[in-house]
Fold this sequence. Notes:
Elements: E1 5-15, E2 22-32, E3 36-40, H1 47-54, E4 62-67, E5 75-78, H2 90-100, H3 105-119, H4 133-145, E6 151-155, H5 163-178, E7 182-187, E8 198-203, E9 206-211, H6 213-219, H7 225-238, H8 266-283, H9 285-305, E10 315-319, H10 344-355, E11 361-363, H11 367-375, E12 381-385, H12 389-399, H13 405-410, E13 414-417, H14 422-446, H15 463-466, H16 477-508, H17 512-516, H18 521-551, H19 558-582, H20 586-603, H21 610-613, H22 616-625, H23 627-641, H24 648-673
Parallel strand pairs: 3-7, 3-8, 5-6, 6-7, 10-11, 10-12
Antiparallel strand pairs: 1-2, 1-4, 8-9, 12-13
Helix pairs in contact: 2-8, 3-4, 8-18, 9-16, 9-18, 10-14, 16-18, 16-19, 16-20, 16-23, 18-19, 19-23, 19-24, 22-23, 23-24
Amino acid sequence: MDSKSACTVRHAHKRYGRSGPWVLKDLKMTIPQNQIYGLLGSSGCGKTTLLKCLVGALDLDYGSIDLIVKSKKQIGFMPQETSLFEEFTIAESFYFHAALYRLSTAQAKSKIKELTEVLDLPPDHRVCSTLSGGQVRRVSIAMTLLHSPSLVILDEPTSGLDPVLANLFWRYLNQLSVQGQSIIITTHYIEEARQANVVGLMRQGVLLAEDAPEKLIAHYEVDNLEDVFLCLCNEQETALPVEVEAAKKITFTSPFKDDANNYSMFVPHTKAILYKICKWIIHNWFAFIMLSYCLSLACIFESNECLKYFPPQRVGVINNGENGTCVNYDPSGFNCSEGQRVDFSCQLLDAWRKEKPHIPLSIYNNINEAMKDGKARKLITILEIPYNFTSGILERFDRGTNVDSELIETASMDIHIDSTDYMAIYRIEQDLRDVFYSVLKDHLKSCGYLPQVAKPPLRIKQDAFFGKNIVYQQYDYSLHIAMACMCAITYLLPLFLLTISLCLEKMSGAYTRVLVGGVRIVEIFAGYLLMIVIFNFTNTAAMGLVQFVIYGKPYGSFWPIYTMLQFLGFSGILFGFFVVIIVKGLSESAAICIVASLALHTFTGFYWPIEAAFSPLVGLFSCIVFPMTLVLKAVMGIILKDAGFFDRQVLYGYGICVAHSIVYAGIIYLIIRKRSTL
C-alpha cells in the first residue's frame, strides 16, 4: 500500500451467489490520504457493494483491500439507508453513538454543537420518525461524523438536501480533509463531484477512470464531468468484456485483523445496546406492557377461571313417576319402614334444587313442549323420568343380578342434551352424577345401610410410590392449564419480543451503521440477553404471585418451579436469537412464531396428555424437539407430588432446557463466526 494512500483496492471481484453476475469485476482503486474522493456512477453499477466491502459489511470473493485504518472504530460510514432508530430523539441518537465510541461528555457536547451548526439540525428533542427526508439525512451525516473518524465513507449524503446546505456541507468536508480526514463520497449529482479532489467514474462493476476532475475534463477536451463520463462509457462499450482471470483470483483477507480478537469494547458496546433497548421500551411502553406482562397475567387469570363459571342454564323435566307433581311428597320423612314408599323421581328433583340452585328446573307435561323450548335454546338439557323409575331402582337393590332386563330398559331415565355445547354437556353430566350419588347415599342411610356403599370402591394413595405420607390432591384441570400457560409464555414471549424488535430494525437497516462501527453481533445479542433475562425474572415472579398467592392452588414448592422456568426461558431466548439470525425479515419470523406457538400448544401436553394423544414415536419427538413437554411434566410433578430436585422427572426438565440451550448457542456461534451483519 502506498504510504500516501488512505485506501487501495486491487483486483476486486464480488458477486451475490455462486452463479450470479459479477457486481465488481477486477476493480482497482486508489484513494489518497486527507482528500475527498468522489465516486460516481449510475444506480446498480456496484458503488454501494464496493463501499460495504471497504467497511467490512461484505467480503470480496477475490482481491485485496488495504486501509489506512486497522479498526472499524476509526471509520465513519453513512449507508444509503438513514440507519437511525426511528423511535429515538436526536439527543438520544447522539448519546447512543457517543456511548458506542466511548466519547467523553465534553468531547460529545463539543462535536454535537459543531455538527448542529454546520448541518442546521432540528431541535434535539425531535423524534427521528417525525423528521423530513432532508432532516433525516442531515442527522444521519451527523452520527457518521460524531466520533471524528480517520476514514469517512458517505453513500449519497447530499440526496434531498437543500442546495445551499449542500454547498455548506461540501465546505465542511473540505475543512475535515484539511484537518487530516480521508473522505469517500458517492453522489448522483455528477457536477457536484467537481468539488472533490479526486473522482472515480464507475460503470458495470469496473472503475473506468480516477483522477482530479479538472484533469479528466482537460484530457477528454469537454466542458464538464458528465461529458467525461459519456466518453468513458463509449470506450467501455467498444472494449472487450472483462473476464475473471485465474491469475487475478487473489484470496481475500479482511483488512480488520485487529478487530478479530479484540473484546476491549465488549462492555461499552453492550451498555450502549442496553441503553437503546431501554429507550425502545420507554417509547413503546404501552405495546410492550400489553404484549408482555398483561398478556402473561391475563393467561393465568383466564386459566384459573375457565372452568369456574358457566353461562346461565335451565333444565327441563318431564316427570312420569308415581307422584309426578311431587306435591304431597316429603323426602325428609322417609325412614324405609314397610308402610312408606320412596319416590326416587321426587327425591332426585328435591336433591337437585338443594344442591344445584343455580341451575333451575322447568317442569313440563310432555316431551313435545320441552323439546320446543329446547330447540329455542331455552333449555340445555331435558330429563324424561319414566313411570317405573322408582320400581326399577328398588328392583336393582332387592334382586341384584336377577333383575328383569326389560325392567332395566324401561325404568331408565332419558337425558336429551344439546350436543352443540360441549362445556354444558360436561357440566350437566358431572351434576347428574353428583346429585344421583347424593340421592342413593341418603336412601341407604335411611334404610340403615352404610352411605359409603354408594361410593366407587377406590382409594387412591400416592405414598406407596414415593415413600412418604402425601395428602392426595385431586387433579385440577384449570391448574394444569395455568402451569402450561406459564411454561408456554416463558418460552415464547422472548421469541416474540426479539423478533418484533430485532427483525424490524434488521429490515430498516438500523444496525448497519452500528455493525460497521465495530459492534459485534454477539454484543448486540448480549444486550438483548440481559434485558430479556431480567424480564423473565420479573414476569415469571408476577405469574407465580397470581398463581401461588391469589389462587393458592399449587401444593409443591414455588422455587424449583421458578428456577426451572428460568432455564426454559433462557432456551427460549436462544431460540429467538436463532430465528432472528436465520430469517431475512419480519414475515418469515412471524411464520416461525406462529408455527412454534401452534406446535407447543398441540404437541407438548398443553391441552391433553401426549401419552394418550400420540404414538410413542411422536411422543418421543415431542420430548426432544419441544423442551416444554418435559418441563410441564416436571412442574406438575413438583406441584402434585412435591418432587424434589433429584426426582427423575425434574432432572429431565432441567436437562432438556440445558441441552436445547447448548444446541442453539452452538449453532448461533457457528453462524455469526462467518457473518458480519445480522
